[in-house]
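Here's what a typical entry looks like (Phosphohydrolase):
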Amino acid sequence: MNMTAIDRIFSIFHEFGHVHYGEEITQMEHIVQAAHLARLDAAPDALIAAALLHDIGQFLDDAGNAAEQRGIDARHEISGAAYLAPHFPPAVTEPVRLHVEAKRYLCSAEPGYRDALSRASELSLRLQGGPHNPQEMRDFLADPAAPDALRLRRYDDQGKRPGWQVPALESYRPLLEGLLLR
């Protein structure tokens, strides 16, 4: 059988979706919740896809265990965006690439944002460089993908609800197929 890019991505999600990486819910629950939040927000298809795919880098080279087990930042946002880039347009991959910078930005820009982070997000924040300094904030905002990355970050932060039943991974296949680069 010839696997498509989406088949390979879904295979990765099914292989590693049971892990928690320090959160109360599994990674599979997290990604479908983030994508569902994007749907509820009437986000464009590319941003819904980014919400679904934003953590694929966690599953490449055991990056998801890097913070808790090895005390390092494996830069899952960079490896994930690079993995997706041959298959999806920048409207999908750029918010994925920037979702960690969006967290760092929000920690500096919004009072109380950092206090609401999950324990795992707080640990990774420290390893990822902490809150932005003023120059990093300006650089981030200058990126054309920053607004979508900020929206993605909100879905990421809110998509961590134990017991919340949302549509399954497979329900996103048609959306992803419509975004594939030909």
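The first helix runs from residue 5 to 16.

More examples are in the samples folder.
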